[in-house]
Amino acid sequence: MSVIAENRLAASASPYLLQHKDNPVHWQPWDEASLAAAREYDMPILVSVGYAACHWCHVMAHESFEDAEVAALMNRLYVNIKVDREERPDIDQYCMAALTAMGEQGGWPLTMVLTPDGKPFWGGTYFPREPRYGRPGFRNVLVQVEAAFRQRRNDIEMNAQRLRNHLKEQLAGDTEPAAITMDTVRGFSRQVAKMYDPEAGGLAGAPKFPNAPFLETLWRAWLRDGDVDARDRFLETLTAISLGGIYDHVGGGLARYAVDGKWLVPHFEKMLYDNAHFIRHCIWAHAETGSDLFRLRIEETIAWLIEDMIMPTGGFAASLDADSEGEEGKYYVWSREEVEAVLGTDAPEFARIYDISPEGNWEGRNIPNLSGLGRDPGRAASEVLRHAESRARLLKFRQSRVPPGRDTKVLADWNGYAIRAIAEAGRYFGSESWTSLAADQYRHLMTILHGEHRLAHVFDGEKASDFGFAIDYAAMIGAALALNEATGSPDYMEDARILSEKLRRNHFDSESCAGFWMQERDRNDIPMLTWNDLDEASPSATAQAIDALSRLATATDDSSLASLVDGLTASAASRILKTRFGQAGFFNATDTVLAARKLVVVGTGPEVDSLWRSACRHPHPGRIDVRLPNGPDARRYPADGAYLCAGMQCTPPATTDDELKGLLREGF
Fold first, then answer.
1. How far apart are CA 514 and CA 398, in angstroms?
2. I need a surface site. Which of 153, 268, 300, 336 has the fewest CB within 10 A?
3. How many CB atoms lie within 10 A of CB 197?
4. What is the pLDDT of the chain when averaged over all its residues?
5. pTM of the entire predicted model
6. Do residues 540 and 586 lie in contact, with contact meaning Cβ atoms separated by under 8 Å?
7. Which of 133, 274, 277 is nearest to 216 (CA)?
8. pLDDT score, position 647
9. What angle do CA 580, 581, 583 make, to 5 degrees?
10. Among the listed ranges 137-146, 611-620, 641-650, which one has the minimum average pLDDT value?
């Protein structure tokens, strides 16, 4: 058993897999060699899926994977495969769908057992080494599952095949296209409203996730239909997040979620994607309210990205861990005595405003927050400014602590989100430094990830992966379009076109024409080709591809691409409308497709420059803006000014800022 007789993770690119390279478990990467070994030796496969910033992944690793006795059991009974869900989201999707189909609650670490030929038949999430928390001990689980596989092999194989057939229908099914209208989109928006938490904002219950697709649904309902309740729910939620402990008031940036129902106690890991979405949401909120709170949060979050997340070779790191020195949140929390020692005479007022007490607000320690000012965002912004110097002193002190680990891999999709958000912030605020930051990171990313045949999914600091995913193209097309809007450079539009062609070449299902496979079509180390229709913290690959290609088609008047997008939307609708959750990204993308809205600003000179600046100050997630400085086009744009177009119809040109504001507010 030479292939599986040792731990092979030392050669991995993923920082998460490298964390496990010294485990006594004979971990294998997910590759053809490990899968072939399972078939050859007729051994079940134990797949453990996690990610670098996952607290409970570390707990299970310390309890079980570093334990010689547990490792010996695993090595004797299974081919053991470690998967970084961020590096291989397709394997994570497959295993998570199987776990859900088994009736189990999803989460990470994800523990899945497969037959030797790769069909899931048993799964769970975190298991303690010994029975605890009402959960069975992992040692017992290992023995009992393997024994059941040997003793009831035929039954398990039959059930596994039925499960695989179900997964194929769910993840790769082909259905007839379905019609979808704006009324369908509005109906979904009303469903989202019913899940709203009127006390704390966000979706009802705990834990509290920022849930970017749902927040965008609320915002689009306001822009599209004038739904004041939807606007207020969006703003209330974003205010609660901006003031709660889920936001890092000392160093900037947003944690992945709050474990409580009031946004106070974060699960302290920080993910690149959450912060990218947060920046965009704050832009929209600032455009609506003018509140300095949202401007400050954008400034602080971008500053944190620059300080902590830019990699030497370019691009942003994936995440920061929740733990430091083996303790969750230790880097971020404070005692009252520490605050007093750092701030001296400024401590009492800071403590009063930021909820710092001797007894603490979480497990005897303090998570700084401004939640008490939730009904007065204006005052909250004033307090943020007033205590800026105190927070800077606390940050300097905090930097002397042992920092949480950083997952240094550079992911194409997450970086696309960040670049788009920073480019949009630069455009909205007229910040050349932010626009330059976005452009620089975009160039770095295209250098290290974009090759002749594909856009690679991940860069490990030395080399790019030999695979990519559909979501990578969609996110980077979004980044390219945002930079085109921010800079006016046609090079970005050309990049978007090239990326769209490679997306079609590598991922389009030319047999059914029903969509883009998540994986490249010619991969041979995957259980099956799958769609990626359901949202997680970010919109699904299907949603992002539809939105990005629709905006590209609208910007370039590409009727062939627009027709393709219409077909993709109808095919996806037939699949997605059957599900009960994870649909928001698709409905947001459908809103973009059905509106097909473009603002074209034609001409040069001070008056036209003013119109463009006014357009920049009225962002809309579903609109694409195009600047034509070469003057009127007698066929479509006969005079200088700003035209709002939908499909092939355009309004008469607005020639003043007031006219443009009215046009953007009222539309057609």
1. 51
2. 153
3. 18
4. 95
5. 0.95
6. yes
7. 277
8. 79
9. 110
10. 641-650
Provide the sign of the torsion angle of the four alpha carbons 163, 165, 166, 168, taken in this order.
positive
- Work out whether the CA dihedral 601, 626, 215, 592 comes out positive or negative: positive
Cβ atoms of residues 488 and 602 within 8 Å: no
Task: State yes or no: pLDDT of 424 exceeds 70.
Answer: yes
**d(C-alpha 230, C-alpha 192), whole Å:** 9
> Using CA atoms, how far apart are residues 588 and 391, in angstroms rounded to an integer?
38
Q: Give 484-543 pLDDT, tens digit per residue.
A: 999 999 999 999 999 999 999 999 998 899 999 999 999 888 899 999 999 999 999 999
Give 196-254 pLDDT, tens digit per residue.
999 999 999 999 999 999 999 999 999 999 999 999 999 999 999 999 999 999 999 99
Structure tokens at 642: 């700003």
Query: What SS3 class is residue 331?
Result: coil
Q: Token pair 């470690």 is at which residue?
A: 82
Burial class of residue 549 (count of CB atoms within 10 Å of its CB; 0-12, 13-18, 19+) = buried
Dist CA 655 CA 661 (whole Å): 11
Q: Which helix (H) or strand (E) holds 266?
A: strand 266-267
pLDDT band with cut points at 50, 70 and 90 for residue 292: very high
> Does pLDDT of 418 surpass 80?
yes
Residue by residue, what is the 3-state secondary structure of 120-147?
EEEEECCCCCCCECCECCHHHHHHHHHH
pLDDT of 630: 80
Q: How far apart are CA 644 and CA 666, in angstroms?
A: 11
Cα dist from 19 to 3, 15, 47, whole Å: 20, 6, 16
- Of 304, 307, 305, the C-alpha closest to 252 is 304
Among 587, 585, 614, which residue's Cα sits nearest to residue 599? 614
**Tell me: the pLDDT tens digits for 120-143?**
999 999 999 999 878 899 999 999
Residue 668 pLDDT > 90: no
The answer to whether 516 and 549 are in contact (CB under 8 A) is no
Burial class (CB in 10 A: 0-12, 13-18, 19+), 360: middle
Residue by residue, DSSP assigns 371-418 as: GGGTT-HHHHHHHHHHTHHHHHHHHHHHTTSPPPPEE--EEHHHHHHH
Cβ–Cβ under 8 Å, residues 539 and 213: yes
Structure letter (DSSP) for residue 460: -
- Which residues, 6+ apart, have CB-to-CB distance to 327 below 8 Å? none
Judged against a pLDDT cut of 60, whether residue 1 lies above it is answered with no
With tokens 């939307």, the residue in question is 569
Side chain identity at residue 162, one-letter code: R
What values do phi and psi take at 245, rounded to 5?
-70, -15
Q: How buried is residue 335: exposed, middle or buried, by Cβ count under 10 Å (0-12/13-18/19+)? A: middle
Contact indicator for 90, 82 with CB cutoff of 8 Å:
no
Tokens of 516: 């883009």
C-alpha distances (whole Å) from 629 to each of 579, 597, 603 are: 46, 20, 5
Tokens of 356: 């710092």
Helix, strand counts (H, E) of the chain:
25, 17
Identify whether the C-beta of residue 259 lies closer than 8 Å to the C-beta of residue 194.
Answer: no
